[in-house]
Each structure stands twice: as structure tokens, then as C-alpha cells.
Write a structure and sequence with these properties.
Length: about 475
């Protein structure tokens, strides 16, 4: 970048999007893979062609949700070590498999999917939500010398859009005006793959239509002039002078895709007011529930990868540093009905067979253990040994040695349970541990993306999972 540019010139000649893409880098060579056949645009050679990630941001306690242990009711003055689950277990549609109270609706659709009870999060020392979320979404532990692409970006790059009008990667529900904003941005990116494969952001699903409309007061001609100005900025700014042809074309294509969507009939899918009231009311439990509804509508229009999050904001949502039990009562109300309805709707329409749904969180929680047995990390929560107040009743510490994941559709087994955690504290994984590279490669395998997929970046191969060593968990697939 020119050192003699002043601030005004910089602001006039470039934009945040341009500089972000410029910094991200670009592949130095074409795709190197062992594919015997490359799928055509809009086609896959696997059992799935769409993925919906339902992200429980903040650390969802497995023993309070999909892997309940012995229930102990609250008593003032009780010993904290006695408490494993603060909700009663309830039966699911699967014989002998219980969920915790408040998840009845999801329990009734488990005959359509798989429950993983043995996900093990990475041991990265001092626990930070953004670090573990980065790892889950990219399969790479931070920091990296290059910007690692998000799971959705790999899929968007390798398979392209199903419908050229609908963005291949759509992210619903996460704002970047809350705590750890910059850290969250670090993995919400296509990295070196280029801007066109990054997420199309919809922070609030109830305002989804506004995401595909010009700002208020801007007519179509003015918007078109801005589009031309954007192209001029790419050509005449630092990107034009220093960026690679790949970077410049990627930026232009990302804007062309947005412009095409703006003028398309498919834009109506973003308008939730078009949904019949009876259906809307089932999903309307808050931002996450409406995000599930929007995900269903976008899947019907040909979206490739959609992430819907409960949104990570420190000390809110699943980030239960106090009032764990009462907070989870509310979180379950937000997710139970919408998740179950999403699965039922896609199943009824026949799309579930080709749509993989994943429900997951960065790690789990435990009242007494921070990190994992044998690898405890710095305590971050003051959890008294004697519970004198209801606010201490719940899962407050971060636990990485036993987490639950749900998977449905797209070739995933039906009515299947994989892995096991101990029934007594520490409730850690004791059978069939699963790590993030296995989850990613299972998704790629179902989509027909070869495990050896990689690009040459900084004169070394960068694989879709670290060193290309990730293996799909074939036991999860039909």
C-alpha cells in the first residue's frame, strides 16, 4: 500500500470489504485433488447437496440437553458436586434414549437422525469461546498464518451454488457489534478462497428482506451507479494495483451475485411475512426460531450452506456463567419447536434426504470441572462448593471432554446413537470419541467432496482438514 496516501484518499478509494479480501490472500494454484470426476455446478456425487448448521453458541451442556444424567433437584445448602443434571430426563421416540426436560419436540423426531454423545473439543489451554468456535467452524486451531476458510466456504467453493441467484453460503443471526466481535469475524470468512465464497449475512431473520433490498431512499438507478463505483474502487484502489486477478474477480463476482439476487423472484424467500400464520407461529420463538424458518425457505430456493445461530454474546444464551438452570429453560423454549418443525417440514417436502442438518456447540459445561480431567485449565467462574442460591444451580464451567451433536438427513443414519459418556462426574467420553476433523470430513464425504481437497497457499498445501488427515466417521452414514 502507498505510504503517502492520506486518510481522506484512503477512505475515498477503498472500502472495508476490499481491504478484507486483499488481506485474506488467494490460492496460488488450481485445486489439487484425487477426484476421478468433478461434479458439475449444482450437482454433487454424494448423498447430500445442502447443509444447515444449527449453532448453539456459547457452550451447550450435554448433561442438561441430549445426554442427561442423574437428576438432582435444588435445595439451598446442597453440595454442588452432587448435581449432574438439573432437569428431569424424558423419553424420546428411541427406546431407552432420554433427553432432558424441555426438549420433547426434538426427542419425537430422533427416529429421523443420529445422536452423537462423544464429541471431544480441542484442548487449547485457556478456554475462550471464540477460539473454540474458530476451531469448530474451520477445523483449524487458531492462530494460523493464513485465514482458514469456514466449513461453509469450502462447500461453496467446491460445489458452487445450487441456484445461481441464491448465495451459496448464508449466515443467519450473528451480529458483530457484541463482545469478541473481531474474534468472531475471524472465522466468518472464506479466507484465501476469496470473497465470493464468504457468507451472506442476515443478522436478524425478521428483517431478511431488507438484506436483499437497496437502502431506504435509494432507487434502482442510484444503486446501479453505486455498483459501478464499487467496480471502479476495485480497479483503481490498492486492490487494483496490488491485488491478484483472482482477488479482483472474486470481489466483482460477489457483488454481481448480490445484484442478481436483488432483482430476482427468489428474493421473496427472504420475506417471512409470506409464510402462512400457522407455520410462522410454530417457528416464532425469537431470532433463532425465525432463523430456522428462513433456513427452510432458502433451502426450498436452492441454498447450499446455511448457518443459523442462537448468537454468541458473552454471558448470554448458552454462555451460562450464572443462572444456568433458569437460562436453559428459556433456551430450550427457543430451539425445541423450531428445530423439530424444520426437520418435519423438510421431511414432508422430501428435501430431508438431500439436506444434512447439524446441531452443535463449541463445547459442553460442568458445574465442577473446567476443561477436562487431566487437562484442567484456569478457573474462569466462581462456583461455590455449597449452593446457597438458585443462580448457582446449573452448568457454569466449560467442559471439553464430552459434548452432544445431532445430525439429520443427507445420508445420516436414522434412529442411531453413537458414542457414550460416563454416568458419573466427570461425565467424559468413554466410547467412540469424535473430533472436529471427523465431523467436517463426514459432511464433505456426504457432499461428494474428496478428503484430499487442498490448495497451495504460501508454497504449502492447505487442506480442508489439517494436513489432510481427517477421516469421515462412516458409522454415522447409511
Amino acid at each position: 500500500m502507498k505510504n503517502n496516501w492520506n486518510r481522506r484518499e484512503f477512505l475515498q478509494r477503498t472500502s472495508a470489504a476490499t481491504m478484507a479480501a486483499f488481506a485474506a490472500g488467494a490460492p496460488m494454484s488450481s485445486l489439487l485433488s484425487g477426484c476421478s470426476r468433478t461434479p458439475k455446478p449444482g450437482e454433487t456425487s454424494g448423498t447430500a447437496d445442502t447443509v444447515i448448521l444449527l449453532w448453539m453458541a456459547g457452550g451447550m451442556a450435554h448433561t442438561e440437553t441430549f445426554d442427561p444424567k442423574r437428576y438432582t433437584s435444588f435445595e439451598k445448602g446442597m453440595e454442588g458436586n452432587r448435581v449432574l443434571s438439573t432437569f428431569k430426563p424424558i423419553p424420546t421416540v428411541l427406546d431407552g434414549i432420554n433427553f432432558s426436560d424441555g426438549l420433547q419436540s426434538i426427542g419425537k423426531v430422533m427416529d429421523k437422525g443420529t445422536l452423537i454423545r462423544s464429541y471431544v473439543a480441542a484442548d487449547m489451554g485457556h478456554i475462550l469461546h471464540s477460539r473454540h468456535q474458530y476451531h469448530w467452524h474451520t477445523s483449524y486451531e487458531p492462530p494460523q498464518t493464513v485465514a482458514a476458510p469456514h466449513l461453509g466456504s469450502w462447500i461453496a467453493k467446491e460445489l458452487g451454488p445450487k441456484n445461481p441467484v441464491i448465495p451459496a453460503f448464508i449466515d443467519i443471526g450473528q451480529r458483530f457489534t457484541v463482545g469478541e466481535a473481531e474474534e468472531l469475524k475471524a472465522f466468518h470468512t472464506a479466507g484465501f478462497l476469496g470473497n465470493e465464497f464468504g457468507p451472506f449475512f442476515i443478522p436478524d431473520p425478521s428483517q431478511g428482506l431488507e438484506s436483499v433490498r437497496p437502502p431506504v431512499g435509494m432507487d434502482a438507478k442510484r444503486f446501479e451507479r453505486r455498483n459501478q463505483l464499487y467496480n471502479d474502487l476495485i480497479s483503481n484502489g490498492p486492490m487494483g494495483e496490488y491485488g491478484s486477478d483472482y482477488q479482483k474477480e472474486s470481489l466483482k463476482r460477489s457483488m454481481e451475485q448480490a445484484y442478481m439476487l436483488l432483482n430476482s423472484p427468489e428474493a421473496k424467500a427472504f420475506d417471512l411475512s409470506k409464510e402462512p400464520k400457522a407455520s410462522y407461529d410454530i417457528y416464532n420463538t425469537g431470532k433463532f426460531g425465525l432463523g430456522c424458518l428462513l433456513a427452510r425457505r432458502l433451502t426450498e430456493q436452492g441454498a447450499r450452506f446455511i448457518s443459523v445461530t442462537t448468537e454468541y454474546e458473552p454471558f448470554k444464551g448458552w454462555d451460562t456463567h450464572e443462572n444456568g438452570h433458569t437460562r436453559l429453560e428459556d433456551m430450550k423454549k427457543q430451539i425445541d419447536g423450531p428445530v423439530a418443525q424444520l426437520i418435519k417440514d423438510l421431511d414432508k417436502s422430501g428435501r430431508l434426504d438431500r439436506t444434512m442438518i447439524i446441531l452443535a456447540s463449541e463445547f459442553s459445561r460442568d458445574m465442577m470441572v473446567e476443561g477436562r480431567p487431566g487437562a484442567k485449565v484456569q478457573e474462569q467462574v466462581q462456583q461455590p462448593e455449597i449452593l446457597s442460591d438458585l443462580k448457582f444451580y446449573g452448568m457454569h464451567r466449560h467442559f471439553t471432554d464430552g459434548c452432544s451433536i445431532l445430525m439429520f438427513g443427507g445420508g445420516i443414519k436414522k434412529g442411531f446413537v453413537y458414542g457414550k459418556t460416563a454416568d458419573e462426574r466427570p461425565c467424559k467420553t468413554i466410547e467412540n470419541p469424535v473430533h472436529i476433523e471427523g465431523i467436517h470430513q463426514t459432511v464433505y464425504h456426504a457432499l461428494g467432496i474428496p478428503p484430499e481437497t487442498h490448495y497451495e497457499v504460501e508454497k504449502r498445501p492447505f487442506y480442508s482438514t489439517p494436513d489432510g488427515l481427517g477421516k469421515p466417521v462412516l458409522d454415522l452414514l447409511i
